[in-house]
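Hi V.,

Quick status before I head out on leave. The structure for the redesign project is tokenized and pasted below; the design run finished overnight.
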């Protein structure tokens, strides 16, 4: 088998994973931006990561369903708590989300303190291992993402605050284990930021931006041997900035 074929066999599951993450995170990201809770995905993703680390600490198979259940349970619990704080203290919700992220981050460090591979686990949680996506799991993850999209586009804001946080928790739980926390945040926020002045076709433009960022980032990773996660983060951000600068101008009143 040629090296090009081997490269393609590695890249195509990673690219599909990127497209799946983009598909769900674009509409959720636009909603997050409009609600002014930009750092919620970092907090919920970090909480889900703590669930993964805690299950691993208890000795469960890192790729087993017990770990998935622990991650989802942690994320849903975190989402429900943030729903409660959003209702109780809406004026300081962003600060509460920030404190939650810091607490979850330090909980992960404490659980990993006695683990000789703790630094590697923490790195994988943050940067992810998108090139090593398990292609056999993609249909299951696609089904989960498809369900999330069906609920969101079918009901929209009628799902309410609790429904939004729970839907968000499920999406982030799956995504952080696919691509890592940094890519989750970038995919959620950068396309929404870059297109905030677009009145038409905003979601379609966001999807094109995400697909291009993942495709070019993965391609550059193969050529340069640099880690794909950081490359995609930088490319998505750079492309997003260019789109924002070249896009519609703000309307000046008067």
């Amino acid at each position: 088998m040629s090296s090009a074929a081997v490269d393609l066999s590695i890249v195509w599951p990673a690219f599909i994973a990127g497209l799946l993450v983009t598909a769900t995170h674009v509409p959720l990201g636009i909603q997050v931006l409009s609600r002014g809770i930009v750092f919620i995905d970092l907090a919920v993703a970090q909480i889900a990561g703590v669930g993964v680390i805690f299950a691993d600490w208890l000795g469960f198979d890192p790729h087993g369903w017990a770990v998935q259940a622990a991650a989802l349970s942690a994320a849903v619990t975190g989402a429900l708590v943030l729903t409660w704080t959003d209702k109780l203290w809406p004026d300081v919700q962003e600060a509460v989300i920030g404190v939650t992220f810091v607490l979850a981050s330090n909980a992960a460090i404490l659980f990993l303190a006695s683990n000789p591979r703790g630094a590697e686990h923490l790195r994988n949680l943050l940067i992810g291992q998108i090139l090593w996506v398990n292609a056999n799991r993609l249909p299951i993850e696609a089904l989960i993402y498809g369900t999330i999209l069906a609920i969101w586009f079918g009901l929209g804001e009628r799902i309410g605050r609790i429904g939004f946080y729970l839907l968000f928790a499920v999406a982030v739980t799956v995504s952080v284990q696919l691509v890592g926390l940094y890519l989750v945040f970038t995919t959620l926020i950068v396309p929404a930021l870059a297109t905030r002045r677009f009145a038409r076709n905003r979601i379609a433009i966001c999807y094109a931006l995400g697909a291009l960022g993942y495709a070019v980032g993965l391609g550059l990773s193969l050529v340069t041997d640099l880690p794909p996660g950081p490359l995609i983060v930088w490319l998505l951000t750079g492309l997003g900035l260019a789109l924002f600068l070249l896009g519609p101008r703000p309307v000046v009143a008067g």
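Above is the designed sequence. Residues 3-246 form a domain with the ABC transporter involved in vitamin B12 uptake, BtuC fold (CATH 1.10.3470.10).

G. will cover questions while I'm gone.

Best,
W.
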